[in-house]
Amino acid sequence: MKKFIPLVLLACLALAATPARKKFKLPKAYVYIPSGTLTENGEKKSIQGFYMQRSEVTNLHYREFLSWLKHYGKPEDLAKAQIKPEGWRLNGGYNEPFVEYYHTHPAYDNYPVVNVSYESAQLYCTWLTGILQDQHPDWKIEARLPTEAEWNYAARAGKEGVPYPLGHNLRDAKGNILYTYRNIGDESISRDPGTGEIKMVETKPGGTFYGPAEAAASKPNDFGLYNTSGNVAEMLLEPGKHKGGCFNSTGYDIRIDAPDEFAGVTEASPFVGFRVLIVVRS
Length: 282
What we know:
Blueprint: E1 15-17, E2 22-24, E3 30-33, E4 36-40, E5 43-47, E6 50-53, H1 59-71, H2 75-81, H3 96-101, H4 118-135, E7 140-144, H5 148-156, E8 189-191, E9 198-200, E10 233-235, E11 242-243, E12 272-273, E13 277-281
Parallel strand pairs: 10-12
Antiparallel strand pairs: 1-2, 3-6, 4-5, 6-13, 7-13, 8-9, 10-11
């Protein structure tokens, strides 16, 4: 493969020479997730250490990938990897500015890429594997989507029993909202007088649009990961599985253990993005 150093990796990857071999140094765009254990459904699982991207893959990262495919003559992959901006036409709202600008304007460079399919995310991971392997020939490197256990472990930052990456609450001690989600206030909660059931009543104008925040917005968890809850749902290695909820999810639905709102979705969606996991072996 021809040498090509994407912007996302410039100044992020370095090699420290040793007499025996070259040492893999932590990419600044990623954090190292140490080995540990995760308890799920009463079963304790061992998780081997890996690198994980601090944030979701951004529009800028993804445009570099598309540019590389075009530059090196990969028309079939380029066609499969295309973003589908028309996905922003939803909820009956006026979202044309998102359709036109979200994936191309520099103002959105650091926002998470969405409207890409599972196949597109897989192609991105294959491309990144090749780039990294070319830069680090002394190591065996695999860039891929995380498994559900790996994602859960990383999102919890090694803590057991917390519903969110930053603890038990959606707000901090000062009342500041910690995640990007559909914040339903008390004015939108009602009790059915007949059944006593708690329900949501839409009080905002119909068609109101809420979008994601920057990929590295808000506060990272103790492993240094941003937005594992809320912002955009994140694809897992298993096709059609996702974690974390999105900007349009309720606070209950962005819990780490929340059911997958987008189960079975493998095509492009404005609510779904991805982040990359890297395994490095000697």
